[in-house]
Amino acid sequence: MKEPVGKHLYSEEITPWFSKKNYPITILLIDDRPVVGEVLRRKLSSEKDMEFFYCSNPVRGIHKAIECSPTVILLDLVMPEIDGLMLLRFLRANPKTREIPVLVLSTEEEASLKGEAFAAGASDYLIKFPDPIELIARIRYHSKAYINFLKQQEAYRELQLMHETLEQRVEERTKELRQTVENLQNTQTQLIHAEKMSALGQLVAGIAHEINNPLQFISGNITHARQYTQHLLALVELYQRSNPDPSPEVKGFTQEIDWEFTCEDLPNLMSSLQVGVDRILEISNDMRNFSRMDQGRSIQVDIHQGIDSSLVILQHRLKSNKIKVIKDYGNLPEIECCIGQLNQVFINLIGNAIDALEMGNTPASESGDTVGRSPEVSLTSRVPTICIHTEVQNDSLVIQITDNGQGIPQEIQDRLFEPFFTTKPMGKGTGLGLSISYQIIVEKHQGVFTCNSTLGQGTEFKIVLPLHLDATVDGGEGELESAKIPLQRENRDPPTSGLEQWATA
To answer: Which residues form a coiled coil (predicted)?
Structure first.
């Protein structure tokens, strides 16, 4: 047999909104004469579905009504201590007895008296003693109406409870969906980050490899070239000694080429070539070190070497914008970290600082706020400046990257680490740099990543890293491996100006 269409749309059983509770017909008589109570008891004794209660003291009438919860009240109109109309008003004023039907019993048939009773809140008006059939019919009629009212109230409460439960389910489901969307965005961000860093690593490693071969050839031959030039100069000097009076033709050519200056400058030229080749080899070594994207593998490394390698990649932009870089390095121990991922963070932060300084440096007032900033950065200076300050505080490594650019408005500072949020023009930024950096610092390295910016004075990003990673915390992948990376620390020119476009996009 086929299942009905729509069976799986909602798997939980729906509770009926109407009430299944059965309310008995309960009668309360309030009369100061017991004989009246006995007469009415006998008249109603044949009705098995009715319960009868009697109260001879009108002062306790309301208390008795609350206690037995009647579906109808029979109330004598004339009583010695409290008038029936006054007690009727008290019943209508009390929230617990306000809706209970009240049948007034009286020996008077005056229309004015009936009008007062109905004005006070009476549901019906009967003359003592009513016919048993009429009395029972009226009791059943008013009781049924009151019982229906109680069921409606109960159904309304159940419906309200179901509504609240449904709202709670919708809220929980919405929260789950929102979390799922955030997880998907984070996964997408991580995939983009991994792909971009892989491409960047391949690009840098490829360039370093391509320039390394001719550099090795030049470096290997320049030593022999220097030796050969020395031999040639020595040979010419021997010829001059053996023939102190050369021919006019030789003298003329010697004067033409300024032989004395050539002999003096040629060794310096060879030394300069050697220095240039050595610098290019060091830059190539830095590029190879930067391209070691360790794919989540933790190693022992000097953070300063990673920062310097990142500065080498961005050196072209720093020079073209005439940005001064102040390195206020403290005495730091080597820490266990993913140096490739931290290099990405440094590239992002320094690249963002360069972007901010490119838009124009707004100098602060002479009494500018420097709280929390490195004292080496003068925010009142008109020179575009980036300061990188490092120190050890309370078993943690602190890195502060500060610029004296225009700053970030307060209203968007809370959104800086959101994925795909960017203040850069269309096509210039993806909004992933700071989000990825936040994940690398906080989730991968169990650190703290904060931003402090004042509009018109500058921006400071502060990174706090533990000196020792806790391998049991989520985010540590596999066993922690240790290695030494011989990164160079000199601040040198990069061989290409396009590398930072990959790193800071």
So the answer is: 156-190
